[in-house]
Design a protein that fits this description.
Mean pLDDT: 89
CATH class of one domain: Alpha Beta
CATH topology of one domain: Nucleoside Triphosphate Pyrophosphohydrolase
Helix content: 10-25%
Structural class: alpha+beta
């Protein structure tokens, strides 16, 4: 699993996007007409088998409109599926002072460093640095196609099973919180909401951005999963349901 080549299209001029609160953008549609991934397909054995013999499929979302004037950078995230009695996905909430994607729900991850052997190594290193997840608990299954953010990160999602029993230590500079969401909830399109926003361009015309959200009620707190994280989860849904 080596980093994907940087795509030349990212060198195109970016289109500045006005700031907005994604929670306030109206829901355009909910995909409750699509079937959920069966519970039998979310077991450790079924997930191993799916990655060992992948089906023919295509990612649904893979690029956001470019809205930051940054050089493209390779990145990797760990999609950690914790194999509890009810499997969950471990997610983080980024701190609000970070320069990109601050305050957002995210997978553990970050830039691929020159010292990283491959993207899986980068994802596991980042998971250790951000939340203290030890590699001895991680079983890498494989990776999904890259997802390019509007901030020019070319992200490879590395999907892994995580054995329970770990203790997390959050890096307070990068991570404000960590939590788990049931995998079945995320793999049910009835919980996938579509949003659209448009903004005017200085030279005339308009730019449009579409994204998914998967808000999860975690006790009294809503965990607002959206944007790149939701897009990669949507691709995982397409992969598992193909």
């Amino acid at each position: 699993m080596q980093p994907a080549p940087i795509e030349p299209i990212n060198a195109a001029p970016f289109v500045p996007m006005p700031s907005f609160d994604p929670r306030t953008v109206p829901v355009a549609a909910v995909d409750d007409h699509l079937p959920a991934v069966a519970a039998s397909q979310l077991t450790d054995a079924a997930l191993r088998a799916r990655f060992a013999a992948p089906p023919t499929w295509s990612p649904e979302v893979w690029r956001e409109p470019r809205f930051a004037d940054r050089a493209p950078a390779q990145a990797a995230v760990l999609v950690p599926i914790v194999m509890r009695d009810v499997p969950t996905v471990l997610l983080t909430e980024r701190t609000t002072h970070l320069s990109t994607h601050s305050g957002q729900v995210a997978f553990p991850g970050g830039r691929v460093d020159p010292e990283d052997v491959n993207v899986a190594a980068a994802a596991m290193r980042e998971a250790w640095e951000e939340v203290g997840l030890e590699s001895r608990f991680i079983e890498v299954l494989g990776s999904l196609p890259t997802y390019t953010t509007g901030t020019s990160f070319i992200i490879t999602p590395v999907v892994a099973l995580v054995r329970p029993g770990f203790d997390l230590t959050l890096n307070p500079y990068e991570v404000a919180d960590s939590f788990e969401v049931p995998l079945a909830f995320l793999m049910n399109p009835a919980n996938h909401r579509r949003h659209t926003i448009s903004w005017e361009l200085p030279e005339g015309g308009s730019q449009r951005r579409e994204w998914f959200s998967m808000p999860y009620q975690d006790g009294s707190q809503e965990r607002f999963v959206w944007g790149a994280t939701a897009g990669m989860l949507r691709n995982l849904y397409r992969f598992l349901s193909a």
